């Protein structure tokens, strides 16, 4: 089943890339449909091609967060109400996630990543994220946390909850969004 999840994640990410590129020259609804079509066809018809296998090897596990952010961005461009993340939220996330990654790679003595294997710490983190969503009124992160926990419990992919709710590409994405907000 993890192959299906990887294919779905790849299809959404490819759809988002096509959407972002074609969005420069066509209207948002057309770019969303075009992105979805190209992403789905690429994964269905070309999944055994070296470039797509390379993307899966490079980007997997896709988890929940990366495809959800891509879908969220496309939905916002279609006019659906999406609560944006604040600059302070993004800055705090970026610093915390960089510390998390440094600890996971052994560069810091703090290793939070190992908590993603245990049920009680995962439950506590999911509840904390849900409380944050309740306080801020933004249900995107709680949805990701709960969906990530559900997939983690099924054992379809990674045995670590963080692999479902984070992705290393969040670092450049958050950095670019913060820089673009300066202009």
From TrEMBL:
Residues spanning the membrane: 30-47, 54-75, 87-108, 120-141, 161-180
Keywords: Membrane, Transmembrane, Transmembrane helix
Keyword Transmembrane listed: yes
Protein name as catalogued: Uncharacterized protein
């Amino acid at each position: 089943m993890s192959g299906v999840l990887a294919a779905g994640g790849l299809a959404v990410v490819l759809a988002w890339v096509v959407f972002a590129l074609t969005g420069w020259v066509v209207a948002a609804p057309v770019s969303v449909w075009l992105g979805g079509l190209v992403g789905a066809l690429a994964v269905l018809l070309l999944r055994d091609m070296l470039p797509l296998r390379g993307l899966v090897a490079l980007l997997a596990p896709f988890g929940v967060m990366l495809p959800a952010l891509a879908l969220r961005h496309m939905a916002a461009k279609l006019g659906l109400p999406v609560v944006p993340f604040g600059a302070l939220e993004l800055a705090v996330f970026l610093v915390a996630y960089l510390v998390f990654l440094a600890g996971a790679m052994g560069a810091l003595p703090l290793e939070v990543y190992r908590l993603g294997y245990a049920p009680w710490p995962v439950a506590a983190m999911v509840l904390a994220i849900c409380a944050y969503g309740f306080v801020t009124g933004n249900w995107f992160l709680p949805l990701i946390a709960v969906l990530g926990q559900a997939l983690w419990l099924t054992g379809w992919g990674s045995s670590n909850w963080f692999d479902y709710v984070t992705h290393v590409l969040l670092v450049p994405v958050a950095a670019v969004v913060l820089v673009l907000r300066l202009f």
